[in-house]
Amino acid sequence: MSFKIKTVVLEKGAEKYPFAQRAVEQLQGCSLFRPDEALPVQRYDEFDQDKETLRLLSFPGQLLKPCPGTREYLCCGYQILNIGTNCPMDCSYCILQAYFNQPSLRVFVNIEQQLEAISEELRRSERPVFRIGTGEFTDSLALDPIVKWTEVVPSFVAKHENTILEFKTKTVSIEGLLSSPHRDRIVVSWSLNSPSIASGEEHGAPSIRKRLEAARTCQREGYTVGFHFDPLIEHSCWEEEYARTIDLLDLFIDPSKVIWISLGCLRFMPFLKRVIRRRFPKTRILNGEFIPGLDGKMRYIKSARINMYAFMREKLEQWGVRSGLYLCMESGDVWEKALGWSPDNSERLSDYLDRRAVKVFGLR
Amino acid sequence: MEFRRGKGMRLDIKQTAKSPGPYTTSFGFNLDVLCESIRKVGLINPPLVARNAKGAFDIVAGYRRILALNALGERETFSYDVTASLASPLERFLAGFYENLATRGFNDIEKAIALNKLGNYMTTEEILVSFMPLLSLPSHEGTLKFYLKLLDLEENVQRAIGREEISIKVAKALVEIEKGARQALLHWIGLLRINFNQQIKFIEYVQDIGLKEMTTIPKILSEGSFLEIVENPRLNTPQKAKLVLEMLRVRLSPRLAQAQQAVDRAVSAISMPREASIHYDPYLEHPCYRLDISFKHGKDLKRTISKLHALRELEAIPELWAGQ
Known about the structure:
heterodimer, A: 364 residues, alpha/beta, pyruvate-formate lyase- activating enzyme, five-stranded mixed β-sheet, globular, B: Conserved hypothetical protein from pyrococcus furiosus pfu- 392566-001, ParB domain, 3 domains, two-stranded antiparallel sheet, 16 helices
């Protein structure tokens, strides 16, 4: 996969990190701006994402933070390892378009030093399981051929027996994973959608078939895989369309070895609607019946969400999924009606997924 | 910049009133008050003018005063010639700009005109840093671009913005819409005389329906069902506006509307005690109903609870989204 990075900006303080130097070596053909070099004045349109510039910077704050779930809906208790922000792909529904007020792809090059500090935190913690993911503010693997996260993060996980790390991606950039010796307690998960949403709305992302081929390779290579149908989108013939994706799953993946599958219907901050309309005027994703949810985000009316989740549950169970199916940011009554049970609160949902991880990885 | 008034002179009003010239920013104003003031006490503050390359006078400050005098039938007025004291076009523009800023402020179209004219004399950076805050605007390039786009709008739209008949938020939506659709929306906003919040809702509903049904905004707004509402003599304007907005909402969100109606019907059929009322989330997202009871003391509360306890109809309240 080739993304069009044209400019690399090494920000002040980043140059001393080996991680940054390795990334710069990988981007030989790009214009490189070092901290003492003045950048040409860049004027961005209000909605410009500037996906052609990669900024390498040292992140001053904490890289590991709990997922910012809301009180009103059940959250899985995930820990986010913030390795970078923004993404080279350009999905029309992407929340990152309105989440950060800074454009450009940004990678935090002090990750190795930060991981040392996180190690201390993990050692001190009494939590039985740490579920950590890197795919919240960027795609976990899209920039891996350049920045080589897979050379750094899995070896960190190997040192902590209570830690599970999930790489969440839409890409087929698995070369780094395949050459990594550390595969225990690593989950590689793919974000899936219907084939028509993938081709029409997930600009720059590989097809569902290609994603599942990559997932099959990882599964055969001993990785534990997961899937995320998020965002589920109501679109023309959505039942047939999502069933096609599940048929493809059946073709490539052994369901008994899938750790978890999450479902989440499209939701977005109200401001994102204007961004989407401007950046993707032909998109059909805003055609559903949306309401302001209890957390202030726009989401489908409850009956539509229940209907979609129940449909997906039925199809996934028919495929062979027996455990690990969960809803992302939903209310207890929706869980009950769509999946037939509810964890009732976020702590219990977190416990459910922790137990799933303990079982799959044989943790003590 | 030190300002010197220049020399006094008699100015030919008819000739000067023909064009606002390069330095003025006035737009969408009403001359009535100014005319009344001049009629009563005369012209207090004489206009400033400067000679241009063709030898005629351009107005530096006081365009509205000259128009008012013209409307009152005056032929000449006392004014100051600042050709020498304000030698450069920028100085002349700034003299008018700061005078307006200090005395009356700008409407949004006037802000756009001022920003556009400033662009003739200085860099975008200077405008952002030094002038946007003076106009109570954020020093943000996106905002500057948006204001400049207002000048491409049709005059009737600009007039509506200048007179604050539509909000700047509505203007933001309108600049992104093609001309035919914009005109249709503006026509309906005027027809229904809806407030700013309703205007935003109205535009959003019609736009969403257009995209969903793959039709155009003018086509939607020329449908008979909407025209019938507007032509209904038994409805007043607020009632018409409410009905149109509701029709659009139901069309955009039919399943929610149906579920809301079912809940509304079930709840309104219950003869609740006067002291108690049942409420629910209008979007039916919160799974629970809420019961409100007002009471003066404990005995009062117990009485209302007893009444509620005896009310068999309560059992008929359905679960939200039941049967949908």
